[in-house]
UniProtKB/TrEMBL annotation:
Transmembrane segments: none annotated. One of its GO terms (biological process) is mRNA splicing, via spliceosome. Pfam families: Cir_N (PF10197). Residues 11-47 form the CBF1-interacting co-repressor CIR N-terminal domain. Residues 23-57 form a coiled coil. PANTHER family: CELL CYCLE CONTROL PROTEIN CWF25 (PTHR16196), PRE-MRNA-SPLICING FACTOR CWC25 HOMOLOG (PTHR16196:SF0). It is found in: Nucleus. This is CBF1-interacting co-repressor CIR N-terminal domain-containing protein. GO terms for cellular component: U2-type spliceosomal complex. It comes from Xiphophorus couchianus. Belongs to the CWC25 family.
C-alpha cells in the first residue's frame, strides 16, 4: 500500500537527488576555490624567490 519512503519526499532529506546535487556542487565549488588559492600561493612564493635573488644580485654587484 505504501508509496515508498516518505522521508524521500521531505525537502531536507539528505538522499533526495536535489540535495545530493546541491552537496556535489558545493564540493566542486570548494575544490575549485582551494585549487585557485594553491595556485596563487605558488605564484607568490615564486615571485618572492625571484625578488630575493634579484636583491641578492644587486647587493653583491652582479647586476645594477
Amino acid at each position: 500500500m505504501g508509496g515508498g519512503d516518505l522521508n524521500l519526499k521531505k525537502s531536507w532529506h539528505p538522499q533526495t537527488m536535489k540535495n545530493i546535487e546541491r552537496v556535489w556542487k558545493a564540493e566542486q565549488k570548494y575544490e575549485a576555490e582551494r585549487k585557485k588559492i594553491e595556485e596563487l600561493q605558488k605564484e607568490l612564493k615564486e615571485e618572492r624567490a625571484r625578488e630575493e635573488i634579484t636583491r641578492y644580485a644587486e647587493e653583491t654587484g652582479a647586476i645594477k
